[in-house]
Automatic annotation (TrEMBL):
Organism annotation: Gasterosteus aculeatus aculeatus (three-spined stickleback)
PROSITE patterns named among the record's database cross-references: CRYSTALLIN_BETA_GAMMA
Protein name: Zgc:153846
Function summary: Crystallins are the dominant structural components of the vertebrate eye lens.
GO biological process, one term: visual perception
Domain of life: Eukaryota
């Protein structure tokens, strides 16, 4: 179980809202969010209600103000919704496809990959099926740029609602605040393939 506390002002001041599950719209609880504290678990936060717009991954820790969060890679200045990333044990599996609607070349991923173009000779990756585990997608190599949380399911067009346009590679990251066997795979996005998005 995760827990995150949002505050209207910097440095954990002003009205607060405590959340231990998904919240599709924080506007009924807070007029804005300028700082937050993740007490346990991991969360994705979103710039717009209903888990829309740009996203940012937050692990256990204190986030004193939005300016510092932006220097860590967050691309927006207020949080409007959040989604708790559930604890996952077991393997990570994802099928990636060269074309939309699971068309073209397919590869199944179960381990880290520095660059899917080099490893699998895929020029594009436009759809995927996340079978096991939870994944983070990044716009650029080295965990930079816009990101998107992907949970198990089928994604016929990538990336849905994240504002990113390219996919290249993903390494894994270990989350120190969860059990040692808990991992979230990270899918790196770069300029290897143009993808439609909403």
């Amino acid at each position: 179980m995760g827990k995150i506390v949002f505050y209207e002002e910097k440095n954990f001041q002003g009205r607060s809202y405590e959340c231990m599950s998904d919240c599709s719209d924080m506007s009924s609880y807070l007029s804005r969010c300028q700082s937050c504290r993740v007490e346990s678990g991991c969360f994705m936060v979103y710039e717009r209600p209903n888990y829309m717009g740009q996203q940012f991954f937050m692990r256990r820790g204190e986030y004193h103000d939005m300016q510092r969060m932006m220097s860590m890679g967050m691309m927006f200045d207020s949080i409007r919704s959040c989604r708790m990333i559930p604890h996952h044990r077991g393997q990570f599996r994802m099928k990636i496809y060269e074309r939309e609607n699971f068309g073209g070349q397919m590869n199944e991923m179960m381990d880290d990959c520095d660059n899917i173009m080099d490893r699998y000779r895929m020029n594009e990756c436009q759809s995927c099926h996340v079978m096991d585990g939870h994944w983070l997608m990044y716009e650029q190599p080295q965990f930079r740029g816009k990101m998107m949380y992907m949970r198990p399911g089928e994604y016929i067009i990538l990336p849905l609602n994240c504002g990113c346009s390219y996919i290249s590679q993903w390494p894994s990251i270990t989350l120190q605040d969860w059990q040692s066997d808990m991992r979230v795979r990270s899918w790196m996005l770069s300029q290897s393939s143009i993808i439609s998005f909403i």
